[in-house]
Amino acid sequence: MHYIHWEKADSTIVTSLWNKNIGETFPMRNHLMRQNSFNHSQVIKNASWLALNENNELVGFIVGKSSGRDGWIQMIMVDEEYRHEGIGKELLKLSEEGLKENGVNNIALGKDRYHYFPGVPANLQDLQRLVKKSGYESDGFEYDMLGDFSAGVSIPTLPAGVTCELLPFKQKNALLEFLQINFPGRWVEEAEDYFIEGGQGREFLIMKDGGKIIGFARINDEKSPVIFQNTYWTPLFDKKVGGIGPLGIVAEERGNGYGEKLVQAAMAFLSERGIQKIIIDWTTLVSFYKRLGFVPWRKYNTYSKNVE
């Protein structure tokens, strides 16, 4: 067994290995693989590795990312025919060393920008055992929620003066300023990426009160310029699939029921596009979304490790 840098990877071969092992539950597309693991600026060369057998065939890989002191293992995979041979342990070691060389002092599994998972999927038991043995500590759970709304969804009744509308492109800067003030960080960066990729605003629902933005929800479907987290696994479904999230209400307006109204409006806008299945990704608000017709679909264990 030998290990080489990720930069020599062929995305089609990596995608094939992924689908051979977990494609039945998480079907990978080459375009998504390239978007998240090849073209993303936070992928770290010396933290991302390929494992090749004696015939130079790909049997495992790991992708590491970093931003400042924060590091992430986006994904680690070893072909089921080559497990329990120390390959996963070696890949983790190589990636951790590379992340530490880049100044990282804490590593999370998943949760990276353009992540695949917000943790380790609960059904990947071999991976759960590997990371626990490697010193990663579990600190909770995250869920994806799924709802079937084939019967359609109506726009909710809103309080006087409150509206929900798709973002007009000319208000792009107003949205970015709103996000920067109220939700700085990742959500701003993802919105900026969206517009760089040619987004025109149809993926952002904005809630206003008296003309002032008080909330937003991102709504995604197959026409979106970026494959977003809540539409990653659409090949699993025969029906049209859309996703909702992230979303948020300004702090001073929380507690007024606007969050629920915003989600209902997002569901209605997707329904108008013919979307029948809707996914909410990376949430702990299981009871909240159950009230709106969603059920838990996927469960993830969250893990992290201090490497100072």
UniProtKB/TrEMBL annotation:
The keyword Transferase applies. PROSITE patterns: GNAT (PS51186). Pfam families: Acetyltransf_1 (PF00583). Transmembrane segments: none annotated. SUPFAM superfamilies: Acyl-CoA N-acyltransferases (Nat). Keywords: Transferase. Residues 4-159, 162-308 form the N-acetyltransferase domain. This is Acetyltransferase. It comes from Salimicrobium jeotgali.
